[in-house]
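INFO batch 0412 | record 1 of 1 | parsing
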Amino acid sequence: MITINEIKADRGEKIQFELKPCETYSMPATLIRGSKPGKNVLVCAGTHSSEYPGIPALIRVAEKLDPMKIHGDLLFIHCVNTSGFKARNDSIVPEDEGNLNRDLPGNVNGTLTQQIAAYFAETILPQMDFCIDLHSGSLHEDLTPCIFFPKEEKISDEVLSAAKSTDIPYLIASENNGGIIGYAGNILYIPALLLERGGKGECRPEWVREYEKDIYRLFTHLGDFGKQNETEKHKHTVFEEAIYLEADCEGLWYPNVHPDMTVKSGDLLGHIEDMYGHNLREYKAEKDGIVMYHTISLAINRNDPLVAYVIKKE
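INFO prediction complete | emitting tokens
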């Protein structure tokens, strides 16, 4: 049973409420207590505030689900970074410029981002049997649908089995411990998945619909609708290594790639020029791989992400 402060729900009940990780912050949430016992599952979106498609998908699923047909408890957090969403910024929490996909386990006495992170690390995540975090490419990123899963071997079979119930083709191992999914999986050993679909600050209806379908597929796989049914079969490729290329200078970024593009070692991924057209830096692929996402913004600063590509096994 999921326990949220003073929020109480009986079996077969659905409650909409404002989740308060600290005194000055709130997040819209729905708690569904199924009519029968089962897994505790977290589904959240808006961890990065401009990654939109997961937010309406989660809202619609939470609205449609009938608690009487659910096994277990489901906690939906409709938008984690609410202040960033309202400010229409890229990904950070505007009050302190923290990143909720980097700052776990946080600090209850720290900045706002650290307090929110600490609430997830100490109160929310330890109650869960499975966690799902919906992302997309940010305002400045074009992306091919993919799933990041915690690299921790203790949960790898369970997370990969769940990931393969979705219609997202590329599954990428991640060592990130600072996000909701990374901390849940790699530190607490709780099975968790970070789904990526859409990008560029858009919220296309087809992306929302596909996210809705994937949430239902995952719920079916996890047994939230009772006895597990045979789920659809989709083609998936698992990648154990990825390269995340960052800028080592500022200037104008000219990418030479697109999502889902196959690149060979030595291929030009893009280059940076200064304001006078002088070539400052070229970036080439270190290994053969497939592009997952890249920055589409012309303006680029030092340490900004440029290209992420997964490495094909030899």
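INFO post-check: The longest strand covers residues 13-22.
INFO record closed
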